């Protein structure tokens, strides 16, 4: 009985998360009604409050789920790269490219920033720790100039995060550039930024 109840609770939570992702991606946080969301999931409002506390808690859970998926995609890039430096560059570029994906753009880069104030401290620490590890490896290999890996990770992570927000907000940017144009501009800047880390100038 306990095992079945736990499974049912997990299924209810998963259903709410899946439905919330769809509704939030389609309508955004401000225009998402909890009654409409729970009705679409075939569940009660009480179930939502039991699992997530409130609408903001549901958003935070959806963001955490998407963040985990983004991390897995980025890690796959690092794991499959034959050259650690190119893998690092590709990983940074891929993060910026994700800012054009509708679900990530609306939920993670717009609503989460407006409602939750951005990424959670745990998510930020995870990203910084992962990037610090990559940079430490590149320094040990003599690819990146010796420096404090944590400081470099903070600088690069901060730059990528702000660039992603800028790209996501590019639909009607004051500079007239849409998100795709901003991505290309950011990619050029990223290459310049990363090239400055190298012990020797980038070839090719």
TrEMBL record:
- Residues of the DNA-binding region: 33-52
- Keyword line: DNA-binding, Repressor, Transcription, Transcription regulation
**PROSITE patterns, sorted:** HTH_TETR_1 (PS01081), HTH_TETR_2 (PS50977)
> Domain HTH tetR-type: where?
10-70
A Pfam family that this protein carries is TetR_C_41
Identification of the protein by name? TetR family transcriptional regulator
Organism of derivation:
Comamonas squillarum
